[in-house]
TrEMBL record:
HTH gntR-type domain mapped to chain residues: 18-85
Protein name in the entry: GntR family transcriptional regulator
Keywords for the protein's UniProt record, in alphabetical order: DNA-binding, Transcription, Transcription regulation
PROSITE patterns cross-referenced by the UniProt entry: HTH_GNTR
Pfam families tied to this protein: FCD, GntR
Length: 233
């Protein structure tokens, strides 16, 4: 086990409707999900406060929130560390997503409409472009936008917001796999979903969605074997 200190970049805290602690939390949360702060790295309260130009109190509050969401852990007399990726949490989030999104895609497939199909086609083109540029952050954002668009089209955009709150651990894995594996398979799976919608084939659309969301079951064992120090059961 290693306990290297996590390095941080400058963060600009701005006056907004969000508290300073919320802004620090959102910044750290994003960096953990993107893998910029790796599992078991130590978070320095003093360093982060210095980089953010804030007192230690909002940083301490942000650490508490990270711990509550399972992204950090406090080790007595040692400090706060980025928690490992929970395999159980990843698998649970995947199971919930499949159950929910397979229903959503069936709702959409009844009457997808040309506007939605055009929107999804544009998103697929943007995904291909992001993949060619090896822009992992853009690619994952576009992946999320694709699924969000389907939830909105089904009349349940709020459901996606609920799912987003459940899949932090899955998102951490997604950033790792997006840097390691070819994006083409995911793009093709999205394409199969769109094609099924275009053909009005409800069963094919649901099957394509389930296949897509089960891809993590193929990726997870390989990544966990390659980086065992990043994961916990």
């Amino acid at each position: 086990m290693f306990t290297r200190e996590a390095t941080v970049d400058q963060i600009n805290i701005v006056t907004s409707g969000n508290s300073t602690a919320q802004q620090v939390y959102a910044w750290l949360h994003g960096r953990i999900l993107r893998g910029e702060l790796e599992p078991v790295a130590r978070l320095s309260e003093t360093e982060i406060a210095h980089q953010a130009g804030v007192s230690r109190q909002p940083v301490r509050e942000a650490f508490i929130r990270l711990t509550a969401t399972g992204l950090a852990e406090v080790r007595p007399q040692r400090g706060t560390f980025i928690d490992r990726i929970s395999i159980k949490a990843v698998l649970s989030a995947r199971l919930i997503r499949e159950a929910v999104e397979s229903d959503l895609i069936r709702m959409v497939s009844a009457h997808p409409g040309d506007a939605l199909l055009d929107q999804l086609d544009e998103q697929l083109a943007a995904q291909r472009d992001a993949s060619e540029k090896q822009d992992v952050e853009a690619f994952i954002a576009l992946d999320d936008r694709f699924h969000h668009s389907l939830a909105v089209a089904a009349g349940h955009g709020d459901v996606w917001d609920v799912l987003e709150g459940l899949k932090s651990q899955m998102n951490r894995l997604r950033y790792i796999t997006a840097r390691v594996f070819d994006h083409q398979k995911l793009i093709e799976q999205h394409g199969a979903i769109v094609q099924a919608l275009r053909e009005g084939d409800t069963d094919a659309a649901e099957q394509a969605m389930r296949l897509h969301l089960r891809e993590v079951l193929n990726d997870l064992p390989e990544i966990a074997a390659a980086k065992p120090e990043f994961f916990t059961e």
